[in-house]
Amino acid sequence: MLQNCKSAQERWGGVSTLIDRWLQERQEVLVDFCALGKINDFDSKNTLHREKLKTFCEILVDYTSAGHFEIYDQLVQECKELKDSNGLKAADALFQAIDTTTEIILDFNDKYLETDDLKTLATDLSQLGVSLEARFSAEDQMIDVLHTAHSEQILSIP
After folding, report:
1. Are 110 and 119 in contact (CB under 8 A)?
2. Quick check: is 158 in a domain?
3. Domain span holding position 27
4. Whose CA is closest to 52, among 42, 61, 67?
5. Considering the domain boundaries, does residue 156 fall inside one?
6. Residue 157: inside a domain, yes or no?
7. Who has the most CB within 10 Å: 39, 56, 78, 119?
8. CATH number of residue 10's parent domain
9. pTM assigned to the model
10. What is the DSSP letter of 138?
């Protein structure tokens, strides 16, 4: 998953400042996710565990919000301006996949903001990891379909 993130950043990193920042946030999400995954026994009394979890949740929600309220809108707007109806159809399907993962992310965040019980955290992290992988794949496809596919058109606009 971390390698895929690096590839996406290399592939689309220069596309726009907004996407660059967003891909950097994605990398931070993955680094923090992996750091939590290395903890074998979560202890609710361990302030370091709670702090790592809190930081992870903050970065995860920031990343998710940026996607929904900045990146996706920009990509769809670009598609609309270039009158790419096929791209807009593809975007609808990708949004559905992303929305499913958003619910899982928000549920995870809500659960761990409200509880000190970390007994199920390892299981919840595993399920979250599967969702993040699906989300990153859909986001990469969205960037490819809605931005990279338009690169030549954008460059040729006077």
Report:
1. no
2. no
3. 2-150
4. 42
5. no
6. no
7. 56
8. 1.20.120.1370
9. 0.81
10. H
For 83-98, give the DSSP string. T-HHHHHHHHHHHHHH
Cβ neighbours of residue 26 closer than 8 Å, sequence gap 6 or more: 5, 8, 9, 63, 136
Residue 126 maps to a domain: yes
Residues 96-143: pLDDT tens digits?
999 999 999 999 999 998 877 788 898 999 999 999 999 999 999 888
Which position has the token pair 């996949």? 97
Q: What total number of domains does the chain contain? A: 1
> Which residue pairs, CB below 8 angstroms and at least 24 apart, start in 21-27?
21/66, 22/63, 22/66, 22/67, 22/70, 22/71, 25/59, 25/62, 25/63, 25/66, 26/63, 26/136, 27/2
- Helix axes of 17-37 and 47-66: crossing angle, nearest 10 degrees: 150
